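Quick one: C-alpha cells for this chain, please?
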Amino acid sequence: MKKAVVLLSGGLDSATCCAIAQREGFSLYAMSFAYGQRHKVELDAAKRLAAFFGVKDHTIVTSDLRSFGGSSLTSDTAVPKNRTAQEQADVIPSTYVPARNTIFLSFALGWAEVLHCHNIFIGVNAVDYSGYPDCRPEYIAAYQKMASIATKEGVEGNPVTIHTPLISLTKSDIIREGISCGVDYGLTHSCYDPSPEGLACGACDSCTIRMRGFEAAGVPDPTRYINRS
C-alpha cells in the first residue's frame, strides 16, 4: 500500500482528513504535536483517533512553542470568545500560532523522507476557519515547491505531494464528508480553552465554527460543552 503521513491534531478536520486518506487506499502514519498548547487534551483525542483508524504508527513530537509564546494557545493570554462570523473572517485572532503549520509540515516532511513516503495529508481549510495565513492554498503551493527542492527524495525525482482535501470545503461539507467515511466525531476535540475536565467552552472560535458546521450539516454535535451559547 502507498504510505501517507497524516497530521493528526485530534480535531474534526484532521479526523476527516485521515479518513479520506484511508479511503483513498493509503497506509497511515499519524503525526501529532505536543507543542505547549493550552488545549493539550487534543492529544488524547489524537490517540483515540489513531486507534480508531488503525494507523501503522503514531508519533507525538514534542516541540515547546510556549518557550517564546506569541499566541494565546501557547501563553497565558486569554483566548478570544464570542467573536462574530464577520470578525472571524476579517481579523486574525490571537490564537494564531506563529509559523505553526510550517513547523508541523517540516517534521512531517522529514518523517516522510525517512519512510520513503511521498504523500502528506494536512487538514487545512480556507473557508470556515479563523483566517490563519498558513491555511491558504498559496501557502501550501509555496511549501510544496520548497519541499521538492529541499529533500533528497525530491532532488532524485520523487517529490512529496501535500494533500489538502478539505481546503475549499465549508465546515458542514467537511462534516458530511466525514460522516460518509464513517468518522466518529465523538472521538474528536476542537475547543481552544477547555475546562480542566476537558469540556468544550462553547464560545471560542473553534467551538462556534464547529457548532455552526454541525447545525448546517443537519448532524447532531456529540461535543460536551460547558456553555452552548
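The domain at 2-217 is CATH 3.40.50.620 (Rossmann fold).
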